[in-house]
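User: I'm writing a short report section on ligand binding and want a predicted complex to refer to. Could you take this sequence and zinc ion and write out the structure as tokens? A short remark afterwards would be nice.
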Amino acid sequence: MNLPKRDDRFDGGRAMADLIRLCALGPRPSGSAANQRQRELVAEHFRRCGGTVRIQEFSGDHPLTGEPVPMANVVASWRPGEADRILIGAHGDTRPRADLERDPVRRLGPFVGANDGASGVAALMELARLLPDVGIGLGVDLAMFDAEELVFDEEGAYCLGSLEFARRAREDEEAGGPRYGAALVLDMIAGREMVLRREGFGLDYAWWLTEEVWDIARGLGASRFSEAIGRYVEDDHLPLLAAGIPAIALVDIEFPQWHTLGDVPEACSAGSIAEVGRVVLAWIERWADSSQQTT
Ligand SMILES: [Zn+2]
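Assistant: Sure. The structure tokens for the complex follow:
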């Protein structure tokens, strides 16, 4: 019998500890003091793990007041001199309100976004610890996007941070800078009952990349990756795709506590986040292997 080899490098327990630490900062919507503290914490962590960190500052309009809101992405690069790069991104901001709570008072309650926000960032933090030794010969960037959802009910625009990132990436590439061969977006990857279905836009616009990742998941026996075709999800992969970067989102949009006050660390599991982390790690290694063969 050909059982998949056990790979414990991506530590789900350590990623869960990061998730809990991020949630302890409180709700982290764009423009908030907690969002700023998270940015500092994550940037410092990336630096300690050997990443070359850039802060991409920009500004958006508050959907209700029209006032400018300061926003910033944190982008960290390993092996920054490599022209061939891949990207793993996640949004760090949390939704300002728990819109899917039926009770109007609960809707205003503190929404900490343990799965919707912290899980993707926690996975990036654990990947950062491993990147000095993983993907040698390949440029790997981790991006924490701001302002994925500074949205109140229907008011506001999605994915402002990834839009800003994609704009700059395109400018850099046109100026002779590095090029991203592929990107994965991680969003809601820690739910206890997580099922990752193949997301619609990723299938339509980056079919081969979806296939590549699910092929790795099958090889690793990652049973939370489902062959089912999921919904179309407006997420940070869309601005990347529009900028010509092949991108897919690993997103569990059926998370039962989605946009409710129940999106807390107790609704998350180390096993789910570790399974995604191990697939992403193997994906990075596959890209590094093929880039070595072509150079
Ligand atoms: Zn959300």
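A remark for your report: The two ends are 35 Å apart (CA to CA). The first strand starts at residue 52 and ends at 61.
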